[in-house]
Amino acid sequence: MPEAAWTIAAEPHDSPDAAALWRAYYTEVSDRWYQRYEGRDTDADELEREIAADPGDHLTPPEGRLLVGRYRGEPAGMAGVWLADAGTAELTRVYVRADLRGTGGAARLVAAAEDAARELGAELIRLDTRTDLVEARALYARLGYEETEAFNDALYAEHWFSKDLRKPER
């Protein structure tokens, strides 16, 4: 079973492995955005500017966590969670390397993020995503997230999801 090859642990958001995963994630979602709207990949200067603009400080204890997933010991994915307000956590940076998608890592990373959110005191977890990230939207729906009204006005947000962390899993 491929899932047995995954391990997940909290790691500093600026560790070399976390930084490399953030770069890979941001490169992929940014390229998809620019290809969709401008027919091009992200410019190198744009990429550096945007990565630097969101270093992940909010994913630091005591109010946040960055979880790094390793597949057979190699950095393979991540998920971040942070307290947006009392009782509400936000899920962010859910990513699995393309060559390891389909191995169960994404569901394990989200479950670990939900556990971390509960440890932070959250009863609700929410996220925003884009229309073109169809794989992400399908994952969240499969994991019990429900599409909800907008809870922010983030530039790239087009869909919003939430999940009650007090409900027992089915």
UniProtKB/TrEMBL annotation:
InterPro entries: Acyl_CoA_acyltransferase, Bact_Acetyltransf, GNAT_dom
UniProt keywords, alphabetically: Acyltransferase, Transferase
Ranges where the N-acetyltransferase domain occurs: 20-166
Domain of life, per lineage: Bacteria
Gene3D superfamilies: 3.40.630.30
GO molecular function, one term: acyltransferase activity, transferring groups other than amino-acyl groups
Entry-linked CDD domains: NAT_SF (cd04301)
Family matches, as PANTHER family: AMINOALKYLPHOSPHONATE N-ACETYLTRANSFERASE-RELATED, AMINOALKYLPHOSPHONATE N-ACETYLTRANSFERASE-RELATED-RELATED
Protein name per UniProt: GNAT family N-acetyltransferase
Species per Swiss-Prot/TrEMBL record: Streptomyces xanthii
